[in-house]
Amino acid sequence: MKDVPILVLDFGSQYTQLIARKMRENGVYCEIVPYSEPLEAIKARAPKGLILSGGPASVYAKDAYYPDSGVFDLGIPMLGICYGMQLMTQHFGGSVVAASHHEYGKAELTLEGNHILFAETGCGQIVWMSHGDKVEHLPEGFEKIATSANSPYAAIAHEEKQFYAFQFHPEVYHTEQGSRLLKNFAKYICGCESTWNMGSFAKEKIEEIRAKVGSKKVLCGVSGGVDSSVVAALLAEAIGDQLVPVFVDNGLLRANERAQVEAAFKVRLGVELITVDASDIFLERLKGITEPEQKRKIIGETFIEVFEKEAKKHNGIEFLAQGTLYTDVIESVSVKGPSKTIKSHHNVGGLPEWMKFDLIEPLREIFKDEVRILGLELGLPKEMINRHPFPGPGLGIRIMGEVNREDLEILRKADVVMLEELRATGYYEKTWQAFTVLLNVKSVGVMGDNRTYDNTVCVRIVEATDGMTATFAHIPHDILENISRRIINEVDGINRVVYDISSKPPATIEWE
Ligand SMILES: Nc1ncnc2c1ncn2[C@@H]1O[C@H](COP(=O)(O)OP(=O)(O)OP(=O)(O)O)[C@@H](O)[C@H]1O
Ligand SMILES: O=c1[nH]c(=O)c2[nH+]cn([C@@H]3O[C@H](COP(=O)(O)O)[C@@H](O)[C@H]3O)c2[nH]1
Ligand SMILES: NC(=O)CC[C@H](N)C(=O)O
Ligand SMILES: [Mg+2]
């Protein structure tokens, strides 16, 4: 097993992966394992430091999650975050109780002394809290190294053991100096050097792919999107013509998408792309289906069926490669800890049990913006890298309720108009993702003195870095006005356009 300088034990926080990612940004390779990882497996990775993540449970409750207690005796530095801090406290005989005041959001730190963990940060820094429990009494040997108005133990330390803990979340964006705090732990406490980068990641992945695939072939699902293009580039580098790239027309694509993808792939990757037209099968199976999760499962399953059928036409295909990212995984299934299912991404939670392929998913641990850096590293063109994400289930999850050909056409036309306006005003590049949704909500309008009773299109444009969180984009009103006017004038069947002003959380980016 490969050595990993910093290992995170995941107790189910939605933010766990951000810890790993912030560490990687600091040049320290970091991986996540479930909280229940056997002690021997942890030792085998020879980590220089362990991080205990946050989590939804309470350490004193019946359903609390405990790691192998041997992790506290490994003799290596440890950093507990929120639940991780509470766990450490309880393990060493301190007490954790339900707090009378829950603390969600911003807090200001007051430092006690000059701890090396806070090197180059400073007093009064803003941190982000998210907890309902609190440390009431510190265990022996621990002392506080920072406080906040509501948390007398905002940060604690046991110098002899080199155990540290934060009640706040250094991994989230809103903790101003969070990245620096994690770096300080890795650098000053664990003695890690900042030598890792996306170039070394690409090399490792290429080696791993070669070792796994041997002389077999790999079918790679490509969509023209960023993630699968990067995976295809990694595979092309690793195994050359043992790569069989397959693009599926599932009938849920945007206007002209198929032609664009075919053209882009030929020119840029120089590999022969196989296109399978499976639109009839997908649309037939979606008839009468309105429940979002059911739609997603049907689409996921049909993708695999199409891939397996295609694989039979070639000799020696044993693997399916997909551009699965961490975002797809964390929302679909409980990955490595006890987190909740939000929606089944077609390429993860939507995979059928009967699937025979062995999966190759080199991007499974990383985020979209990291993938973009990797893509540039691999020499992919900027237009391919900066393309907005487009989900595999496509327009199927952007038509509320049943999907049919007529509505697909309406939505395609609205989408073209919206994208034209965004591109013309430079807002395509300035935003993270933009699309239209057909709401299937009818309302009354008046056009040319006549009454209309037609459908509604929702415009959704968001800002994000990795898609884990997002805010609606503040698009100038005159641009929204043009989009609205043009959609209503140019798309038959639409008499109303609305703009989605919700953020994620509590909403999600897609509507289904
Ligand atoms: N039409 C398609 N044909 C073949 N494979 C697909 C198709 N759509 C999606 N996939 C597979 O599912 C994976 C996940 O889709 P997803 O949309 O998240 O990634 P992407 O399309 O590669 O990138 P982007 O997020 O930029 O759209 C893809 O990486 C690809 O392997
Ligand atoms: O390939 C995909 N298959 C899916 O099933 C899927 N569901 C959502 N998405 C994309 O993921 C990002 C986060 O979306 P949500 O906030 O809606 O979960 C956004 O970029 C979404 O477009 C998907 N991509
Ligand atoms: N974010 C967390 O780790 C929360 C820990 C614990 N569930 C609490 O509410 O205090
Ligand atoms: Mg896509």
UniProtKB/TrEMBL annotation:
Q: Which residues are listed for ATP binding in this entry?
A: 223-229
Q: Which GO terms describe its molecular function?
A: GMP synthase (glutamine-hydrolyzing) activity
Presence of keyword Nuclease: no
Which CDD domains does its entry note?
A: GATase1_GMP_Synthase, GMP_synthase_C
- Reactions catalysed, as given in the entry: XMP + L-glutamine + ATP + H2O = GMP + L-glutamate + AMP + diphosphate + 2 H(+)
Where is each GMPS ATP-PPase domain found? Answer: 196-387
The protein's Enzyme Commission number: 6.3.5.2
Q: Which UniProt keywords apply?
A: ATP-binding, Glutamine amidotransferase, GMP biosynthesis, Ligase, Nucleotide-binding, Purine biosynthesis
- Pathway it belongs to? Purine metabolism; GMP biosynthesis; GMP from XMP (L-Gln route): step 1/1
Quote the catalytic residue positions. Answer: 82 (nucleophile), 169, 171
Gene3D superfamilies for this protein: 3.30.300.10, 3.40.50.880, HUPs
Subunit: Homodimer.
What's its job? Catalyzes the synthesis of GMP from XMP.
What's this protein's name?
GMP synthase [glutamine-hydrolyzing]
Species assigned in the record: Sulfurospirillum tamanense
